[in-house]
Amino acid sequence: MPLPESTSTAAPSPAPRGLAATCVRQVKRELAIARRRGSEWINPLLFQALVIVLFPLGISPEPALLATLAPGLLWVTALLAVLLSLDALFRSDFDDGSLEQMLLSPQPLPALCLAKTFAHWLLTGVPLSLIAPLLGLLLSLPAAGVATLMAALLLGSATFSLIGAVGAALTVSLPRGGVLLSLLILPFYIPVLIFGAGAVNAAIVGDPVAAPMALLGAMLALAIAGAPFAIAGALRISVDG
Amino acid sequence: MTVALTGRGLACERDERELLHGLDLEVVDGTLLRIEGPNGSGKTSLLKLLTGQLAPTAGTLSWHGQPLARARADYRAALLYLGHEPGVTASLTAMENLAWSAALADLRVDAAAIEAALQTVGLYGFEDLPAGQLSAGQRRRIALARLELIPRPLWILDEPFTALDRAGVAWLEQRLLAHRDAGGAVVLTTHHEFAPTACIERLRLGATHAAA
To answer: Whole-number mean pLDDT of chain B?
Structure first.
């Protein structure tokens, strides 16, 4: 290694990059990590696909029965798939010290948390919504419900990611936080589940879907406004403990 | 003066065990403070106090005369912290790790600057390998490349010499002294002995807890 000459300390300070650019970099980092690790974003998809494939085998292949079950089943499996992915959200960053670096950054922590959660949604909620029509086909989901199912899952899974990240942040320093995490956040998932499955059912029978979709949107808006601050606070508590 | 960190009467408890009590310290431009003490004497806890990650159970910390809690944004913009775990993500390459570090530090740096920093720490040719495939010493060097890449007046380093080879230790020692001589401040914990001519300040912790 060469000895230090007049390197960084004497060099003119690089220009600041701004919060937006930092958040973009944070999202890119999460996507790069997911690309290298693979299993983290494939596992929830695989889980949902397996449950949906096995269900008709276990219950009955009758299309009429499956069509009644389809909206609720697709929503419950999507919820559980998100839940499975949450424990890993902050775990490796906590273990390798990256989380400390985030906490000590001069950038506002809630914005970094929002970027990280957005990446989590891109890697779980969006793929789950995209394969939902295919899985719906396996359950004989009526065609009238498909578009609503995708839209409702996109909205609802974003709320899942945001609420779930609060729980993941609270339990990241616990050695086996997974169970506690599920218990903590499941009650908050239930309204999303009810209105999400309700929207799909309404679309199938031809009722207007505006009301349940608006409620899903309202819950997401509330989560976007509040969750980043709760995640940041929870992370500070976890690291302090 | 760019660095003015003052602690008065600091105390810290962990799991109902008193680690620090009535500790005063002053870190200003040109300070190179080495925190010493046996394992479990609270060295890492003290660094976490100083970085604001832990709240002291008693006493005050101030930055340029303001309580640390109120001057947090200014303080973080002046601080470079390398923790016990160096914050290097195993599945990212050295380049990606440092690009993220620079983004967190709110700096716009180009690939050439990152490559230059990696070259300085002796990782030339390793910039596109995932950090998980490198040795512990090389991962530590990725973390140390932040010292080159991110210009900050106050360095707080937890065991920065861990896993470095002899050449790396010599380089880091020179780098710390050069930073001090250029007007920066360094607070570190280490079991490494500096050259007797280095003239550094020492703070000894946990003399009462010392092993028999």
So the answer is: 89
Coil, helix or strand at residue B54: coil
Instruction: Find chain A residues with C-beta within 8 A of B76's C-beta.
Output: 104-106
A18 in contact with chain B, both atoms CB, cutoff 8 A: yes
Model ipTM?
Answer: 0.89
Of A14, A112, A240, the CB nearest to B109: A14
Q: Which of A5, A9, A123 to mutate to test the interface with B (most CBs of B within 10 A)?
A: A9
pLDDT of residue B15: 79
Q: Which fold, B4-209?
A: Rossmann fold (3.40.50)
Task: Tell me: pLDDT of A194 over 80.
Answer: yes
What Å distances lie between residue B37 and B22, B203, B204, CA to CA? 16, 8, 6
Domain-wise residue ranges, chain B: 4-209
Q: For chain A, what are the domain ranges? A: 19-240
Q: Which of A11, A32, A106 sits opposite B76 (nearest CB)?
A: A106
Which of the residue ranges A66-70, A146-150, B46-50, B197-201 would you say has the lowest mean pLDDT? B197-201
Q: Which residue of A has its CA nearest to B146?
A: A8
